[in-house]
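Hi everyone,

Forwarding the result from last night's run.
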Amino acid sequence: MNAARSQRRRRAPAPTAEAGEHAGPMAADVTELRALVARLPERQRLAVFLRYYADLDYAAIGTALGIGTGTVSATLAAGLRSLRRMAEEVEL
């Protein structure tokens, strides 16, 4: 069953975005989220960017920032906690 689902997912066409499709509630949420990420302290902002935008693992993030993987984990946790708090404040 799981193999069939995985195979179907691999064959599904990738979603495409038309030029005018970015207007709407989702676009506003993404813009607000980017603004919240920009408000994070520099190390948290970089860690969040490298993990969720560049899709790097903890070891690669640690190498890029010159910190250990445990520190990467703590930095990401603090950054996500801050983002949740800020998102609740602006009701995102």
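The mean pLDDT is 83.

Cheers,
N.
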